[in-house]
Specification:
The chain is an alpha+beta fold. It has helices at about 1-5, 15-30, 70-85; strands spanning about 10, 40, 45-50, 55, 90. Strand 2 (about 40) and strand 3 form a beta hairpin.
Length: about 120
């Protein structure tokens, strides 16, 4: 049983106090905790978090000549409302640096999370 004591545990965030503690730990480690639902705990210490099921990733393609700016804004609004109605708390939109949307996404309320590689695993 000693081995189990040193194994990381993944469990739901308990309460507001733990949520705050988790955010503070992440900030001290120079990371953001984005809508955490589960905490990773080892020997009583918070060692990470996961967001499971509350952020909906939405991947899109807009035709570069047939889809006008007004069309794009309307479509984005519809997608955001679809995500809200599904019960999700956030929408995650991958946007390349070359996209015409990249310089204006913050005006739509999006936060640039920085560069990362999106990894896909199908089941």
């Amino acid at each position: 049983m000693e081995v189990l004591k040193n194994m990381p545990v993944v469990r739901p965030v308990k309460d507001r106090d733990e949520f705050i503690k988790l955010n503070n730990e992440a900030l001290e480690d120079r990371h953001l905790a984005i809508a955490p639902t589960h905490v990773f705990e080892k020997s009583g210490d918070i060692i990470g978090y996961a967001n499971v099921g509350t952020m909906t990733p939405v991947n899109t393609w807009f035709h570069s000549s047939k889809c006008k700016a007004r069309d794009s804004l309307h479509i984005i609004n519809v997608l955001e409302n679809m995500v809200r109605l599904s019960g999700s708390q956030a929408m995650l939109a991958p946007v390349s640096n070359q996209s015409p949307f990249f310089p204006v996404m913050n005006r739509f309320g999006y936060i640039n999370m920085g560069s990362s590689n999106l990894m896909l695993k199908t089941f």
